[in-house]
Amino acid sequence: MPRFSRLFACALFLALFFAFLPRTARSQENPYIVTYDQFLEEPRNLEVEYFSTYGTQRGGNDFHAYWLEFEYGATAWWTTEIYLDAQTTFHDSTVFTGFRWENRFRPLKREHFINPVLYVEYEHVSGADKILKEIEGHDVESDFLPPNAEARKEIDNELELKLILGSNFKGWNVSENFLLVKNLAGEPWEFGYAVGASRPLALKAAAKRCTFCPQNFVAGVEMYGGLGNTSSFGLNETSQYLAPVVVWNMPSGWTLRASPTFGLNGNSHQFMIRWGIAREISGFGDMVKKVFGGHS
Amino acid sequence: MILLVSLCFAQNQPKAEKPARNSSQDYSELTKAPEKARVRPNPFENDPNAVIAGQFLFEGHCAECHGTSGVGGKKGPSLRAPEVQDATPGTLFWLLTSGVARKGMPVWSKLPDAQRWQLVRYLKSLGPTNDTNIEKP
Asked: Do the beta carbons of residue B68 and residue B76 sit within 8 Å?
């Protein structure tokens, strides 16, 4: 079995195992797939997520990129996450494309009109990575043309910093992300952004247990793209995307997201369809402590 | 594989009987609510459905730490203590909105205002109790 298959199969097994643990918590997620809001994972909870992106490719083969995400609430002010990325390019091959380790910190004690969150990520990914979790610098559609065998030879070690700002107003969530990326091989700093707005279909909870109640659905829109780099800042030669988003927060603890994504200029993929499924496991940290003999 | 089996076993272990966290420190945040927040009335005060809706929200988001009937758990203090039950609805709404991140209480502003008020309505309906032992599973 190739190394990729073993690794990803193992991670998938873990994800499924965690996802089907019975101690789940009801999550209340915003629908964004790229934009981060100001909310962190609840302390000691683990959220296991699978995301998928089908993308069109002009001049080449369409692709299906996917990632597994393990998001853990270390404290009420710190969330840490591991991502495992992979992709299949049609008529080419399937490759494991790397991992990311992400941390988010909420520096302020109280809720304000604008709430900042600081984000630090290290990523070790190959040039074949196509998950498009963030768009930065002069990333354009033609970067995705090289065949996997060639693209995966390029290995990028990157440091990614984000300032996440989030506000809630009359039921709406508005989030803005400002992104700085540094390839540790000495390339210039690259910039990007993501903004999103969303609102539950009903603000008041129903006085009955229900799966399809409107308060379980949150709909919105997000927009994201690159902003060049230190030597050429701006929108020139960048890709930009607009995406309606919707999430269904099921009382069973499962969360389902979907987002058709449209490229806004000639440098962008014309169309992508993204979806994701997540399950929140409550008290995961306590379970691990018990296994190792600690008191939770 | 051993780790996974152990995790399954660990999560099915009965919870130990331990006193709930109810030191006065746990409630000190309530005294920090600004006057403007403290005096806000609950718009759902006279809505009988708000208690039921609040109960479902409580079960989904709060019971894990504060126990299914709010008497406290390993992670969260009792919500039926006099400090909570005597607090104004506005104070409880403020605390839910802001959280107490340094003590492990998450920010709940991810729930819309209306749902936080419904939660407050349910909390106030619980009434006080001196029973602050952890609930049996």
From this structure: no
